[in-house]
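Table S5 (text form). Sequence records supplied for joint modeling of the two-component complex.
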Amino acid sequence: MPTREPRQTDTILLEALKRPPGDREGYLREACAGNQNLLAQLANLLRAYEQAGSFLEAPAAGLAEAIASADFDEARLVRAAAEEVAALATQSEGSGPHDGPGSVIGPYKLLERIGEGGFGTVYLAEQKEPVRRRVAVKVIKLGMDTRQVIARFEAERQALAMMDHPHIAKVLDAGTIPSPTQVADSPWRGEGQREGTPSPSQGEGRGEGRPYFVMELVKGVPITQYCDDQRVPLRERLALFTDVCHAVQHAHQKGIIHRDLKPSNVLVSRHDDKPVVKVIDFGIVKATGGRLTEKTIHTEWRQLIGTPAYMSPEQAGMSDLDVDTRSDIYSLGVLLYELLTGTPPFDAQELLSAGFDEMRRIIREVEPPKPSTRLSSLLTAGIPPRAGRRGDKGSRDQGIKGARSEPRPEGRGDSEPRPSGSGPRPADGTHAQPLPYGRGSDRASSVLDIARMRRTDPQSLARSLRGDLDWIVMKCLEKDRTRRYETANALAVDIQRHLVHDPIAARPPSRQYRLRKMLRRYRGSVAVAAAFVILLGSGMIASTVLWQRAAREARETERQRASAEQIATFMEQTLASVAPSVARGRDTMLLREVLNSAAERIRASELRAAPDAEVRLRFTIGDTYRQIGAFSEAHGILRVRVSAIAVWRLRRASRTYAECSGRPPIGRGALRRSTRQVP
Amino acid sequence: MNSLEHEITRLLSASDGPDRATADRLLTLVYQQLRKIAQERMQQERAAHTLQATALVHEAYLRLVGDPEARWQGRAHFFAAAAEAMRRILVERARRRSAEKHGGGCQRVELTDSIACEAEPAEDVVAISEALERLSQEDPRKAELVKLRYFAGLTIAEAADAMGISHATAERYWAYSRLKLYQWIHGGPSL
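The corresponding structure-token record, covering 870 residues in total, follows.
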């Protein structure tokens, strides 16, 4: 084990310091192997060690004070410091341990760097044996306990191997790369644990070397980016998202929790011109230690600030033991939120700048706005999503100011809807780890853009989020995980239900809600049913009117008028609930016939005795005509002669008519005149 | 704030480290942020000296960069910039203080305990800074590590990470550099 090669001073020094004080000198003598010069130098350093105490161990004091009260030439200071930093950057270039393209790790040859993230660097690599294929190799950055990472990975390996799902990128292998410096300076330990079987001879505390993971190669971009770039409409976004749910469900069934679901771990690529989702990094997050564990912000803060925007309340609670599949459900909810509204429920930037404890508090306690609320609050305020995020009044006002100072050109070219300057992005987007997911809000910096990326307008987007999707998302985001969806599958099923207009489970079912759903689902049949109702209705009106003629008493007349009113109300509601606007373009023929016949009867003065009911019916029929695009019919039925009490209704109708036909509204005078022409 | 974040991200993601102009702008931003935080803290709590370099630098990082997914060499640039800015500030202040002490228009005061206490860190900073320059000629990477540890308050693990070296290497560098600097400053027998 010992070697005769001369070792570097610092290596021997540290080794000596690790020994009990009595053994140190002896060790030095042995290690220096007769090199008197080296021995003397080291002996001096050992002596310095005894006196140094905690010299330099605490960071420089008085810093805040110094910097706050600094009154000297700052420009000069900055210039000088910049020179130093620039010089340092050129020096350090290439001196770090780069496992760059060309190097070989076990059976994998690194070809090119394709991504970088908080964990480390991802390379495109070629595997030679046992099969020749291309893979992605993720080299975990330094500073993690390699032994633990590998051990944790090994523990889950069996489960990972059982995962087999078209929407999950497989993790194929893991291992350790000996760090180059270690190889160079520590010849007695330089074996390098290639195959992920960490030898117990490794240094205490942190293991050395760097863990790496080999994954199925996925050429894709984060799902949010894909959807925005391709301007994917809401329905297709939901379809893609249900694929993600199914992938997560599959992993959960195999006992694997992802723990870090976020856009950059959900990649979309195109196969045969169809988008295909792949969830990457299953098993890796757990192996690399989950994020929010026992550490505090002042020690290993970097590892702990994982992806707060996607972190579940229980993860923010930092009880690692307590994380289960429902944490993934939460993260799925955040992902869905962002896919729908263009922003995560809590802004990543804002969370981070809130400071650590506040960040945890927000994630655990603050109820985010419903997706539709988020959208419509942006809409009414007309502000970029970043401002006014938490819906507090003060900041929203600021946001408005901000928006005014930065007007946005309307109707920009729609070929490339992405505003520029959305941060660094890997050239081909393969395994695009480093994408700043939190920048979603920059990407779509106005509601208009958000809507445009979904091929709709802000109003209809907010409308389609209201209701079901709000409920579904908010159920995922419940702070109390027992109230979330039990499984990813349940979430997917609910989205499916929403897509086919079935009642969803997330929503407390009300009778009205279920009825509305039924009407939507059986749109065609409802239209037919409504047609009969109308026929029946006009028949009733007719008979009522006949009967009314027979009745002489004023009381009787009055009662009939009331009932005609009721019938008119009934018909109004019926026609409104059929929502012909939705049925536009299909199945309107029957409806039109029904309307024609009703209009005919009205023109035949069958309702002369109940003018108010007649006006209302005319309005309803006219409006329904308008909605199915029969403008001239609408015009015909709305141009009427009735008693003056109904003039205001006519005006309303004529305004509606004018709005959609583009013709001038019937003037007040003309209306009045027409109502006076009683035959 | 938005455009600032963008700019910082861009500056930090310069792939091979900042060039002269980038470094200049980066330093200015980092320095301004450090100063802003320090001043806020001074107002908040009178005992601002409890604010450690660690907290100061990390907070500046969060505010300026925020994005945890930023390229991690970017962090190295950031911390190098912050550490260098801090070092300059402390040295500048220490030099001024000692200039004032050496009769720069001030009256002579008897040496008392309180002055002695105050003077100590100031002296240290200048000495440490000079020793660091010496170390930098011997081994710039080691000097860099000390700078990150002492002026930016990073832990060994964080500094290792920022510099792209292994934890073990960082520990070796640190043990050696700390003692070497001590030796130089406190006039050890050799060199």
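Note: The two ends of chain B are 50 Å apart (CA to CA).
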